[in-house]
Amino acid sequence: MVFWIFMLVCVLFLPMVMLAIGIRYARRAPKKIQALYGYRSEWSMKNRATWEFAHHYCGRLWKWFGAVSLPLSALAMLPLLGRDADTVSLWSFLPIGVQLGLMVLSIVLTERALRRSFDRAGRPKPR
After folding, report:
1. Distance separating alpha carbons of residues 104 and 59, to the nearest angstrom
2. Cα separation, 90 vs 54, whole angstroms
3. Helix (H) or strand (E) segment spanning residue 122
4. What sign does the dihedral 51-54-56-58 (CA atoms) show?
């Protein structure tokens, strides 16, 4: 039971972080364009407009992905309650893998949105 609780916390950690950071970045991007933290890519770091757009867009995705995957991940762990440690650890990789896939998908979608909205120099494209 103790191991199941530990794995439940591990499985729920990433959606909680995605939800918290998503809420933060959907509201406000970090003040400075920097390589230390934030959504950092070649396109997002071109200027302040691309920096804020990328954080707002990715923040909304992470907020939504975190809110959806948090309860689904908890539900995925319920059938493992009372199982042996090997089974719990093996099947816990399924929700974690889905969560990591959502993170990669958020990068792909954000980069695509940046390219649709800005030219190579970081200027907004006419609509």
Report:
1. 14
2. 35
3. none
4. negative
Name the DSSP letter for residue 28. Answer: -
| In the chain, alpha helices (H) | 2-27, 48-77, 85-117
Residue with tokens 């920096």: 51
Residue 88 — φ and ψ, nearest 5°?
Answer: -60, -45
Q: Which residue, among 105, 125, 126, 124, has the nearest Cα to 48 in the 3D structure?
A: 124
Q: List 57's β-bridge partners, or say none.
A: none
Per-residue pLDDT of the chain (127 residues; tens, 9 = 90+): 888 899 999 999 999 999 999 999 999 988 888 888 888 988 998 899 999 999 999 999 999 999 999 999 999 999 988 889 899 989 999 999 999 999 999 999 999 999 999 999 888 988 7
- pTM of the shown model: 0.87
